[in-house]
Design goal:
By secondary structure, the chain is α/β, with parallel strands linked by helices. The strands form 2 sheets. Strands 1, 2, 3, 4, 6, 7, 8, 9, 10, 11 and 12 form an 11-stranded mixed beta sheet that branches. A two-stranded antiparallel sheet has the order 5-13. The radius of gyration is 19 Å and the shape is globular.
Length: 297
């Protein structure tokens, strides 16, 4: 089965002070998404689709395409806040992108086969791609890869995560976007909008936007996005998230979405302060012969 890898790399990060998706790690100057491409290819993925912005297209292609295009076929899609379904016009008050679900929709014309979606600034480990590839040998379902919340936090400030709600049999019921999660006094807490906080069990599962979809699911994305716009088009900060699509597929379409376990140890860069630890993690993987120093030699 042919597989696509869709990398979401269109947004800007005010908390990181720059184009985090193109930032270089370790002395060989690889972006984190280059390790994702390398791992996905070894797990039998066939093509990578980058979702980027037109404003940094030339810089992106210079730094990424020139290195990886010989290794795996590449397609591009462009996320723009004005790229909306017929009948909808982006209001002048909108500045933020429409969210990860919209980013996936922007790539629908260049997605050829079933596809996995990942963030450009996360390191998921090769095992996660192998988990997906092995799952697809015997299944034709949408799925997500889960991580323990205790393993996916920043050591510095708060993060947002998609917390997984499971039923008594361990099946996914919903993914709840949860903001302002952090460690304090040996606990994991999340702040509410009213100023109070609640504790999260460190073993609870969350999604890091590593999700698997059948190509047919893009039709559901389109339908749900139109409904989202009808309700929220004049809300300047509300976003259309992939977890919302997954939750609706479960609750409204009756889909069974498996949660795929992995022992992979995620790391990433939410803030500039996370970069040093990420460099050290990559160093240790190179020293353990998990990756070559230069991926593309």
């Amino acid at each position: 089965m042919a597989l696509n890898l869709v990398i979401l790399a269109a947004w800007m990060w005010s908390r990181y002070w720059g184009l985090k998706q193109l930032d270089k790690f370790w002395s060989w100057g690889h972006a984190l998404m280059e390790y994702s491409i390398y791992d996905a290819k070894l797990a039998w993925f066939d093509k990578v689709v980058f979702v980027i912005r037109k404003s940094f297209e030339l810089e992106f292609k210079e730094k990424i395409w020139n290195k990886v295009s010989w290794f795996m076929p590449v397609s591009y899609a462009y996320q723009d806040i004005n790229d909306l379904p017929n009948g909808f016009v982006c209001p002048s008050t909108r500045e933020k992108p429409w969210g990860t679900g919209h980013a996936v929709l922007c790539a629908k014309d260049v997605i050829d086969w079933p596809f996995a979606v990942i963030n450009a600034d996360d390191f998921y480990w090769r095992e996660s791609y192998e988990v997906i590839a092995n799952f697809l040998k015997n299944n034709d379902k949408n799925a997500i890869v889960w991580y323990k919340i205790s393993e996916v936090l920043s050591d510095f400030w708060t993060v947002s995560r998609g917390m997984c709600e499971l039923d008594n049999e361990g099946n996914l019921v919903a993914i709840h976007e949860t903001k302002k999660i952090y460690r304090k006094d040996w606990k994991i807490l999340a702040d509410k909008e009213d100023g109070t906080s609640f504790e999260i069990n460190p073993n609870e599962l969350c999604s890091m936007n590593m999700m698997w979809f059948r190509k047919e699911s893009l039709a559901f994305y389109e339908r749900y996005f139109k409904e989202f716009l009808e309700k929220n088009i004049n809300e300047p900060k509300v976003e259309f998230y992939m977890p919302e699509v997954v939750t609706r597929l479960i609750n409204e379409e009756g889909e069974h979405v498996p949660v795929l376990p992995t022992e992979a140890q995620w790391f990433g860069v939410t803030y500039q302060e996370d970069k040093d630890a990420t460099n050290k993690s990559i160093d240790s993987l190179i020293e353990a012969w998990k990756y070559p120093k230069n991926l593309w030699e």
